[in-house]
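Hi R.,

Here's the chain you asked about this morning:
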Amino acid sequence: MAERCRLSTDMQTNPGAYLGAAMGSLAKTGRDKVTVIASPSLTTFGLWVEQLLAESTGKEGTGLIPIAQEPVLKPNAYGADRFFVYLKLNREKNSALDQAVQALVKADQPVLQFNLRDCYDLGAEFFRWEFATAVAGHVLGIHPFDQPNVQESKDNTNRVLETFQSTGRLPAQPNHQPKEVAKALSGLLQPGTYLSVLGYTTPTRPLEAAVGRLRRALMSTYSVATTFGYGPRYLHSTGQLHKGGPNTGVFLELVDRMAPDLPIPGRPFSFGTLANAQASGDLESLRTHHRQAIRVQLGRNPATVVDAIAAAVMGTRGSDRRTGTRKPYPKTRR
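And here is the predicted structure, written out as tokens:
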């Protein structure tokens, strides 16, 4: 892979340059949601691609918006802002994915397919995607090797912690109920936007399953791309894109009760306070950049709250169909 990318000056035979040119060129036409579909044992590779593309290209009001581990649905759940890359591992059970990808091709969605002989071929994919990201950055006219907005949320977190140390309280943040969230989303999500779920909570399988159901509901209702990341991890990956990339994101911040909590040795605040400060700091950063952000305080059962939001989203779709009306979408800032 490295030799083919280094030696070939023909775009058609240079695997890294071809992928990079495709991503950059399609993004300039509005297809900036690079959606990675992968065989079951390769799904986590999409999370690495997510960080690579988001942190490298999401700046100066442009960038590639990587979509990883999203439910694979029928073609009518996708808009005209998608570019699909299918990573297929041979000898794995791929029949369902093969059918889904073929349906996307028939629906005239742009799809690239890379066939991997075995898991060792992932080494070549790492190189291909890194090379391609540099090429895409050139096509988009940005510098792919800096991350100017990552430090911003850290600085905001420190200011929130200073407030806590001087007052003994974190800044108050509005909390929205599931039906309020669904109603707000109905006026914010439009073709070309994406919904990013930001989870400041303990990773669990029930929660991730509930987020998957929420993503499916949003895709089915609004045909928008969806992402999901745990905080504060995402601050060092998609966080750069959220603030520096295209202003087409809508952000749903889910914040846990942080219980039980633990003290941080040598610090006047706990781990729970730190996590809440990071959530508040990033929310401040998003709003400073005129991003649309909604905060939800999770209760004792986070998965139940997420499922309630998904049910409210589906209920909003039913209400729109009955009345035949939708709230007008606001113009998207870039």
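One quick note: The mean pLDDT is 92.

Cheers,
M.
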